[in-house]
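Appendix B. One record, verbatim.
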Amino acid sequence: MTQLGDDPIHAIPATRAIRRSRGRWRIFAFLALALAVILGMVRFGPELSAPGDAIARIEIGGTITTDRDRLERLERLAEDDTVRAVIVAINSPGGTTAGGEELYEALRALSLAKPTVAVISELGASAAYMTAIGTDHIFARRLSIVGSIGVLYRHVDAGRLLDTIGIDLDKVASGQLKAEPEFDAPINPEVRQSLAELVEDSFSFFVDLVAERRGLTRARTLALADGRIVTGQMAVETGLIDAVGGEAEARQWLNESHGIDPDLAVFTAWPPPSRTGWLRQWLAQSAADALGLGTGQPIALDGLVSLWHPSP
């Protein structure tokens, strides 16, 4: 009787390789399908809705960047008649200038549809403060960190390190400012001037927003816009926020100013929960750690940012 191992066809190395390859592809296909299902559950998780008339809570934490899903969620809240008001809970050092601008504009649009109030917990600085002034009223704890009105462009010159390890970078560019500044050399005067203009334009935009929303003169706003941070109490005294308090005080303000029942249920409209929340959180934290965006880590965003964080 002929054994399978004695079959000359199966004894051919190429045939065995094809069979092994087919098995690996089956495993790969299964893993890809499983990943697609998991990501689909994350992306298309349960839709959030108010349990009857309620107050929505939007949580803004960590590093702020643009976010299409968050933007769409804010737009849907504006159209939801069961949402009587929105509390924006902020605990963030800021982020990209574009991210702060997007959130500010979205909250201004939302405020046209229903009352909005910001509550800053530990931190509401830079782009996070820009977010706060997009609401109708701002609360912060007495010892919260607020402010840091400003913009920066950070550059690292690693030229000496690259020289030490024997790496030389070169390029051919269409213009002298293309792909500048290079991280293997100091910023030259022409590049520095172009970046200064970039920073100044964004800074002026930020200052004008603060002056308009907080009812301050531009001169007074500029005096507060040197990058300083202040406590919540100091922010009240300088006009950067409205009052010291937390969510309870915010709900009381909604009642006194807009007649909204302070006992209404509050539900978190952002970020959305999902059945795979643990996976989403792990992936997000892993990505943040890899980019240097984790809690207590130096920011590693490439480009123009409006951000405050302590040096490592």
